[in-house]
Amino acid sequence: MKKQFTTLLLMTLAAAALPAFGQSANPLLAEWKTPHQTPPFSQISNEHFVPAMREAIKEAEANVKKIVSQKEAPTFENTIAALEKASEKLERVSGVLFNLNECNTNAEMQQIVLQMSPELTRFSNSVSMNEKLFARVKALYERRNELGLTTEQLTLLEKTYKGFVQNGVNLAGRDKKEFAKNSERLSELSQQMNQNVLGDNNEYILHVTKEADLAGLPENVKAAAREEARERKMEGWVFTLAYPSFGPFLTYADNRELRREIWTAYNSRGNRGNSHDNNEIIREMTTLRHRQAQLLGYETYCQYVLSDRMCETPQQLSEFFTQLLNASYPFAKQDLAAVTEFAKKMGAEMPLQRWDFSYYSEKLKQQKYDFDEEQLRPYFQLEKVRQGIFDLYGRLYGLSFKPAAGIEVYHPDVTAYEVYDGSRFMGVLYLDMHPRASKRSGAWMTEFRGQSDIEGNQIRPLIQVVCNFSKPVGDKPALLSFDEVETFMHEFGHAMHGMLTDCTYPSTSGTNVKRDFVELPSQVMENWCYEPQFLNTFAKHYQTGDTIPGDYIKKIKAAEKYLAGWLCLRQLNLGMIDMAYHSITSPIEGKMEAFELEHSMDLLPPPAGTCTSTAFTHIFAGGYASGYYGYKWAEVLDADVFSKFKQAGIFDKATAEAFRREILSKGGSQHPSVLFRNFMGRDPNINALMTRCGFVEEPKTAAEE
Q1: In angstroms, rounded to a whole number, what is the distance separating the alpha carbons of residues 613 and 591?
Q2: I need a labelling partner for 230 at 20 to 30 A (CA). Which of 267, 331, 588, 623 fits?
Q3: Which of 228, 373, 491, 519 is labelled catalytic?
């Protein structure tokens, strides 16, 4: 997600000791005379990052010094607003480095990131622990209700004040030094964790040389595996740990032993006892996080994190988990029993194992709903899905997306678009859709630049959406699974949260909201994927042009609640594991797979040697520590919000404009509870989620009664 100055206090970065590089010759430091000041990627190379980062740090330090040393009494403008602008160049340089390291990295860049981390964290600590700077902030905070501030300014002031406190400014002597040292170490460890997972991802392949071992796989999956082998100059078929490769293999391959092999490879990442092992990294990270919380007066790291969330206390979170767990657990057991019984009838070896579940649950789904996910794929050509999403945002918000051939991209797979609201330029959107060895797995939205409007200097965002979707094969275009369509909608929802923001300050714009609110604008968009009115606008067969059959859409709707209990329990289980790691009060002993098993409620315990935690980059390298619950928390919000769209009509402009006005445009300029109430007219209600999952009966309409 976004990496603004205030969050830089907690960011993880790096740098190598390279020769000095002249500022005038360094494109990262020069003025970008490009369309919309977009990064000139072709001019940027690894040798530019370290000198640019160090120069940008020096400039930011000088700007902070000016704020501290001025003789004028603190005002919002000369202190808080000035602090927002103090590290603009550093944000620009780090934005390019971090994003490229995630999606187009190499060994040298990874080393730069690892080595520069202490320098950037040291700078962050020098700001967050600057007592004279904090004195100015505190003086304003104590008079905040007398200053005549706007709602956004008041929110920013409170956020800035709390950021200083939560980053140790009130600590003294040894405690302050320890906190700073721990921060530096944590930033290094999180980057190393990410790189270890990428390393294990890239080191494994499943090389198949006998066509009989491909039995059950759809033709498009086999064709992609053959293409992967050709690219590697190998015979036969190659499957990797990129989701478009291993996911279909687990779902369709008849060969149980090979399913076991690739499942084990994926679920042992970071736990193989090799140079990429993450056990000690997690042990050290969780210990240091607990120590940081202790230094700040909290019992656990979880308590520390929740002090700045919608869900404010561990007790409130526990109650939320309990409510959903009680609702979903019986249905999860029913789901497992149904799949197990079906597998027995199919002659499966018992007990059912993790690498069996996707395979047999998919066959049961096909039987139960006369529904095969692969039947949908020809109707979801990537280009048509993309255009369908563009058209949806045009219909809801009046946006248009224009290909921008004049804007440089960092890889041939990437496309850039200029986004407009009528004649108003809204920002640049980069789409990076396919897997490669230089890109981490998963899907995410981030930005090269956020939106702001300080002193009338309107800055529009440069937004990036990165996915790992199925590639084109031969003359066949990229065809998405239904899950991939949902993922595209999800990440696009994040992107439009960043694009449609209309705030003054970088730290309150776009996705700079409380972590358990940030998933609402993304998750709510997934709901459209189940609506015939939306699917009919773009789901056309890539060869015949025929619209997706109505029977297929009915089957999608009928299967919407399939395995809802199982999937809900899975998410809750990951959330509980996250909370367990961040509720410790003493260092974890032993391997992480034992700790994970102790705190898991999974109905299918993992085999020895496998462990989710050692590749759980969301919580150890992605900002979701003590926050993974946010996905389920936001599901309550998104189901509730979509019920309002359903009531008014899924393309209703008045509802869409209200959502844009009260949620999307406001960013983090107000507390999310206030934003939600402004849109819905009340606090969140869990009933819509319970109904959507099938945990309670759907209320009958007057016609049905």
Answers
A1: 10
A2: 267
A3: 491
